[in-house]
């Protein structure tokens, strides 16, 4: 009450004797003509409302039951105002004031408890075998064509039963787009997408979720049919190029030069889209086919620690700590990612299976190669991702390769540009020296450090 008195000294004392709730009702009632009226909807920061809210105890919000917005401050206010400052040292009082959440701890919430709807679950791709990821199920919910500076790609959106994130697959396979029946390579298609989801599904339902073949247009609408067979490898065609890429909002969208993530995403799609030359014994001229492969885009911001922690980590980095130490100082691991969902998505796309063609993996990260091989995916080659600025350094003519990259084209804000700068050099150096990334360390002078 002391608070309301100080905010509203002109309010009469009988009124102040009312309970907080009654007082609010009176003050906000259209019938009350004696004092200023308050709109309950619009008075978000009204001091009276704040005073009442602060004295009303712990808060209940839709998602956070019993949270205290300002744990220390409110506990102190409650203790002093209601029980007296002398009581605050009592152990039982301290316990009552502590932060209480009715949400499960993060480690429990992240456990695989999410179940897909039965209709969906019956169509998902389950991974067989005794591996710890055998319970992972993924389902491609929708697919569409995205034109990019490097050509069309098919964006696939996945749901899974391990986390509630929407991971993506960016499939480069423009041969599917053409009417050319002499295309040699097996199409890269999602089995869960092409499955029949329910008996009532119409052709238009299938087309709208992306289960179509060829080029979709007002005059070309061919729903796909479920594929039961694993695409068989074609000896003369190199295995598809695949990248497992972790989300980086700062690098990909903002154009941050603290890391090379934006450049890597752009470069991966550019490399996968390059036409493939096939040797032709009968003729000196080699034949080319369209590039093919996929980027599995995982929602693993900040190596799995999330954007909030990554932003904090950047401030620690500005204080002089490297990326690994900054993560550890925030109570995270250096790298909290797993690649089980990526494996399941690759399987769904028919990529890397033992009987199939295998994949060429675009990465410098040994963990990714190991993770795929551990789950039985066939990695026939690791293809290095050399930072564009380092590629130039390794050549005597510093700018020789830059023109080839196409400065303006690109799928991220960085586009065809090379990321460079002191921040990036520190970041790459840490990856190589502390995280074991398999890349020669080029120094600014143009020499490789062993
Ligand atoms: N915690 C943290 N994460 C970062 C930082 N900079 C980029 N990232 C995240 O790092 C992830 C990319 O991982 P990298 O270690 O760069 O590369 P990689 O995927 O392990 O390996 P490559 O396949 O060789 O690219 C993305 O999720 C980015 O958001 C940083 O300073 N701190």
TrEMBL record:
GO annotation terms (biological process): riboflavin biosynthetic process
Source organism, top-level taxon: Eukaryota
The reaction(s) this protein catalyses: GTP + 4 H2O = 2,5-diamino-6-hydroxy-4-(5-phosphoribosylamino)-pyrimidine + formate + 2 phosphate + 3 H(+)
Location of region: Disordered: 79-104, 218-239
SUPFAM superfamilies from the UniProt entry: RibA-like (SSF142695)
Domain GTP cyclohydrolase II: start-end pairs: 239-384
InterPro entries: GTP_cyclohydro_II, RibA, RibA-like_sf
EC number: 3.5.4.25
CDD domains named among the record's database cross-references: GTP_cyclohydro2
GO molecular function, one term: GTP cyclohydrolase II activity
Keyword annotations: GTP-binding, Hydrolase, Nucleotide-binding, Riboflavin biosynthesis
Presence of keyword Lipid metabolism: no
Associated pathway: Cofactor biosynthesis; riboflavin biosynthesis
Sequence ranges of Polar residues compositional bias: 218-237
Coiled coil: none
Membership in a protein family: Belongs to the GTP cyclohydrolase II family.
Name assigned to this protein: GTP cyclohydrolase II
């Amino acid at each position: 009450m002391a608070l309301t008195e100080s905010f509203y000294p002109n309010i009469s004392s009988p009124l102040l004797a009312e309970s907080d709730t009654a007082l609010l009702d009176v003050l906000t009632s259209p019938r009350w003509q004696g004092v200023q009226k308050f709109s309950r909807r619009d008075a978000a920061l009204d001091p009276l409302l704040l005073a009442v809210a602060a004295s009303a105890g712990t808060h209940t919000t839709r998602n956070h039951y019993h949270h205290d917005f300002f744990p220390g401050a409110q506990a102190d206010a409650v203790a002093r105002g209601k029980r007296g400052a002398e009581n605050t040292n009592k152990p039982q009082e301290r316990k009552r004031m502590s932060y209480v959440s009715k949400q499960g701890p993060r480690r429990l919430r992240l456990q695989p408890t999410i179940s897909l709807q039965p209709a969906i679950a019956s169509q998902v791709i389950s991974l067989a075998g005794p591996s710890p990821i055998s319970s992972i199920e993924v389902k491609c919910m929708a697919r569409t064509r995205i034109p990019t500076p490097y050509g069309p790609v098919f964006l696939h959106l996945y749901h899974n039963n391990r986390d509630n994130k929407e991971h993506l697959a960016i499939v480069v396979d423009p041969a599917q787009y053409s009417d050319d029946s002499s295309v040699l390579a097996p199409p890269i298609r999602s089995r869960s997408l092409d499955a029949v989801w329910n008996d009532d599904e119409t052709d238009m339902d299938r087309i709208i979720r992306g289960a179509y073949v060829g080029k979709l247009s007002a005059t070309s609408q061919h729903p796909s049919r479920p594929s039961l067979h694993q695409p068989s490898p074609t000896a003369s065609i190199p295995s598809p190029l695949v990248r497992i890429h972790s989300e980086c909002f700062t690098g990909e969208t903002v154009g941050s030069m603290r890391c090379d993530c934006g450049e890597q995403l752009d470069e991966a799609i550019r490399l996968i889209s390059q036409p493939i030359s096939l040797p032709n014994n009968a003729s000196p001229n080699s034949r080319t086919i369209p590039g093919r492969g996929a980027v599995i885009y995982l929602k693993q911001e900040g190596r799995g620690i999330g954007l909030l922690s990554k932003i904090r980590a950047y401030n620690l980095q500005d204080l002089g700590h490297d990326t690994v130490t900054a993560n550890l100082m925030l109570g995270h691991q250096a790298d909290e990612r797993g690649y089980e969902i990526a494996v399941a998505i690759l399987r769904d796309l028919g990529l890397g299976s033992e009987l199939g063609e295998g994949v060429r993996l675009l990465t410098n990260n040994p963990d990714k190669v190991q993770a795929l091989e551990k789950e039985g995916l066939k990695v026939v080659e690791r293809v290095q991702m050399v930072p564009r600025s380092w590629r130039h350094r390794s050549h005597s003519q510093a700018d020789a390769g830059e023109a080839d990259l196409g400065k303006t084209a690109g799928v991220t804000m960085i586009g065809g540009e090379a990321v460079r700068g002191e921040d990036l050099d520190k970041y790459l150096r840490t990856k190589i020296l502390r995280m074991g990334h398999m890349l020669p360390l080029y120094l600014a002078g143009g020499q490789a450090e062993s």
